[in-house]
Write a structure and sequence with these properties.
The longest helix is centred in the N-terminal third of the chain and has 35 residues. The chain has a single domain, classed as Up-down Bundle (Amino acid/polyamine transporter I), CATH 1.20.1740.10. It has 18 helices and no strands. The chain starts with 8 loop residues before the first helix and ends in an 8-residue tail after the last helix. The chain has 465 residues and is mostly helical.
Length: 465
């Protein structure tokens, strides 16, 4: 049984037609889905960290991170419009790199999406507590953080983080269109809040704060780019919705590229404003950098809206990341690599109901019991690895299926995919050694599952259509 057996693209497309998932999403839904996944923890929490590292050149760091994502996004758009099947890069890898590579990528994406939902739920909990404190409402410390997360305080369980995961899980379990409607409203509010930051903050910018522009040189810029890459994680989850899109060949590329472009412009503008209002070094110990900048110049009412926007923004990230996670597991189960129970579709809601609740409960508990700094370590490396693989896969698909109809073609092949791989590897090299070690351990666990279960239950390996 070959480890590199490939699933035919024709078979994948035929299977998607039989899948039973409702096709309800359009280009605007996908764009909102992508923006909802992208804007969140990165811009609201990590902007201060990036400003300390890069200074005002954080604007450049955002641009570098956006370029790395854009290069991979072009490859994603070609695959998503050519092979509109649930599972994102997992399915693309199955058709181009073979089953073992597809399993590794699918396992990798479980780590990325799962831990991202947990991490964002913890961040959401913190912003909610800050927002409530403004109204004089306090929650018991014991139930607001994971064990050991707050030095000097006894903490047991992050209840708000767990509860928000349960609410999002319930939404996803009853149907993606209903979830998409909620997501669209929250994203519209969130973008409006970000535009408010830019519109109000620009009148309080002091150009002198932009000098020196690069206080820590290019090392600081590159280091910040590796951190701020997290702020762009999420656009790839749009491709996971492939089977629920009414016109995937047209709408998927629009959704992927538009959501990334919108967020890149907003991020650079926010970075310019906040570093122009407050000297970058002052963000060293600030957990709410965007609203803090407006508080400094007396715009406390706007800062309150920013806190509210952060809460809404993180809700949408949890929703979209949870959605992408369940659809990847659904696709892997449908191929026999995971138990069949995980690809069961609810007869009324048309969703992978059991999988949605299983994943929601598991990562909800992780968010409630594991500190944020621990969760954040592995997210970027998993994403960068996936983006590298999709860029390699587009080169292979061009060679093995040159005549396959493509609604969108990645420009500049082979230069663009090669540059995407190089950019992702460069950012990976800026991550900590302990992150690499943990990543290798996770992959080793995944390989153990593949060789003990998935390899022998694979529908492709057993010749099952």
């Amino acid at each position: 049984m070959s480890l590199f057996r490939k699933k035919s693209i024709e078979h994948m497309l035929a299977g998607a037609q039989r899948a039973g998932l409702k096709k309800t999403l359009g280009a605007l839904d996908l764009t909102f889905l992508g923006v909802g996944a992208i804007i969140g923890t990165g811009i609201f929490v990590l902007t201060g960290t990036g400003a300390v590292q890069a200074g005002p050149a954080l604007m450049v760091s955002f641009i570098l991170a956006a370029i790395a994502c854009a290069l991979a996004a072009l490859a994603y758009a070609e695959f998503a419009s050519t092979i509109p099947v649930a599972g994102s890069i997992y399915t693309y890898s199955y058709a181009t790199l073979g089953e073992l590579a597809a399993w590794i990528i699918g396992w990798d994406l479980m780590l990325e999406y799962g831990l991202a939902t947990s991490a964002v739920s913890v961040g959401w909990s913190g912003y909610l507590q800050s927002l409530l404190s403004g109204f004089g409402i306090g929650l018991p410390t014991m139930l607001t953080a994971a064990p050991g997360a707050v030095p000097g305080h006894f903490t047991l369980f992050n209840l708000p983080a767990f509860l928000v995961m349960m609410v999002i899980t319930a939404l996803l379990s009853i149907g993606i269109k209903e979830s998409a409607r909620v997501n669209n409203v929250m994203v519209a509010i969130k973008v409006a809040v970000v535009l408010m930051v830019i519109g109000v903050g620009v009148f309080h910018v002091t150009p002198a704060n932009w000098h020196p522009f690069m206080p820590n040189g290019w090392d600081g810029v590159f280091g910040a780019a590796a951190v701020m890459f997290f702020a762009f994680i999420g656009f790839d989850s749009v491709s996971s919705a492939a089977e629920e899109v009414k016109n995937p060949k047209r709408d998927l590329p629009i959704g992927i590229i538009s959501s990334l472009a919108v967020c890149a412009v907003l991020y650079v503008a926010v970075a310019a404003v906040v570093t122009g209002i407050v000297p970058s070094a002052q963000f060293a110990s600030i957990s709410h950098p965007v609203s803090y900048a407006l508080q400094v110049v007396g715009q406390t009412w706007v800062a309150g809206f920013i806190d509210l926007g952060a809460v809404l923004g993180m809700l949408t990230v949890i929703l979209v990341m949870s959605y992408g996670q369940t659809r990847i597991i659904y696709a892997m189960s449908r191929d026999g690599l995971l138990p069949a129970r995980l690809s069961t579709v609810h007869p009324k809601f048309g969703t992978p109901f059991f999988t949605t609740w299983l994943v929601g409960l598991f990562f909800g508990l992780i968010g409630a019991l594991v500190p944020l700094n621990v969760l954040a370590e592995l997210i970027n490396i998993g994403t960068l690895a996936a983006f590298s693989m999709v860029s390699i896969a587009v080169l292979i698909l061009r060679r093995t299926h040159p005549d396959l109809p493509r609604a969108f073609r990645c420009p500049g092949v082979p230069v663009v995919p090669v540059l995407a791989v190089a950019a992702c590897l460069f950012l990976m090299l800026n991550l900590k050694a302990v992150t690499w070690i943990a990543f290798v351990v996770w992959l080793a666990l995944g390989l153990a599952i593949y060789f003990s279960y998935s390899r022998w239950h694979s529908k492709l390996g057993r010749g099952v259509e």
